DNA sequence: CGCACTATGAAACTCATC
DNA sequence: GATGAGTTTCATAGTGCG
């Protein structure tokens, strides 16, 4: 019983309490109590949040665990002090480790920390005499956006009496040296266009690597996939320093699938002015997973989520399915919403397999395994006794944050609805990133929206209350353009919507024309085709050079044109 | 022709273990 | 570090029907 609810993502403590309060019999009441609890409290326990917080600053997990053990959970200042002391002394300076928490359970067991006290790599007696001056400098450098590792090694190399300015110079010089080497290594690569306003390597790097051969480390996906922070775990990364060439105006926001073939995100990031991608799973925003990478130059401080908050798990999103949900289906979130749905043949096979074991209290293990494998593969939900079904289009609309009937009618087929929705943004996730624009542009913004699809960016901005003065929207699909146009009119937008079918139509002349007419674009947003990158594609997963996915280079081309023209003005 | 339906794996990841 | 089991994935091409 406890395992059942723990499997849904609730913590053991909370489940035990809910069972105690409601009795073992009434699972509905227990679930309700759990949902209320998760709605009222944040998704993470305080301890795991605390760990995440410091790990996000670049400290290793075992270091953080040790520091919390020494100082208690309450005094975060003294924890930080201890961590800085460890770092200053050069103890276990690896920064790449993350907590290996269960992706499905945001809360951690109380016993979680126990394992770490045995694996400490540093001893108490080595930290007797922390140098206060050293600490102060570390704090200063950390607040400037440098990692503790970079800072502490720079101090080690430069000596104790080095000024902050000299230390930052040292770090920059090391970064540039690494960049030059990397650039030499890249010349061998296949030819590529370069940003015309210069190419500067300025990624935050870990000083430890400077000893190693100058090979660019490939981009890795974060675990948990929370980017620079999500509402339940905000500001994991407090500061980031953008490369000079990346700074706006205009702001830009590029999106694609996180699980692309190797090297794809390295290339994308390289083109987009060396901005580090922000990888986020939408399961932290809604009831369905959606692992995506976002390269953008927006500020990341003081983001806020959309209201009202969407359903955070399957039970909130699809309350009617609760009645039929068996205890052995422990899913709390759906998998990625894709462009195709399961066949009726499959759900029939499942129904028959389940009916064959109707007499027993629970299907045998191999049947459960078969059913659950298909449920996860096809995102099936329970709609009756032994009955599973794919999501309806309006349910997909809701899960992705679009208004009901957004893609309905006007001549679009059911198949095309699934396809357009499956290719879209998750609105709440994107809106969280875009939310900083609201205060920056009280008078509204001009938007260049490439590969708009069904208008995920426009819907997100509208729901945020960001006024759109002029929107230039480009999408190859006529039904998609109709959907956006129809939404634009239904929501009584005061601004102007101009649409194009093909990004090729946007050449330098036309872009210059529009920039002159509108006074420039404030936001260039878009997610280029993923079909040659996505794992579901058996036939033509050709990478970034694939037929459609290579349109990424048009996103870059247009963005770079806009940047240059706006810089000139 | 438009539409609904169906069959079709592998790459790349995570996690545990040795 | 190496290995292996387990899990996830904004899809395409072909067929058949009205």
TrEMBL record:
Its EC number is 2.1.1.37. This is DNA (cytosine-5-)-methyltransferase. Residues 238-569 form the SAM-dependent MTase DRM-type domain. The active site is at residue 530. It comes from the Eukaryota. Residues 1-37, 45-86 form the UBA domain. It is found in: Nucleus. GO terms for molecular function: DNA (cytosine-5-)-methyltransferase activity; DNA binding. Its main location: nucleus. GO terms for biological process: methylation. Keywords: DNA-binding, Methyltransferase, Nucleus, Repeat, S-adenosyl-L-methionine, Transferase. One of its GO terms (cellular component) is nucleus. Belongs to the class I-like SAM-binding methyltransferase superfamily. C5-methyltransferase family.
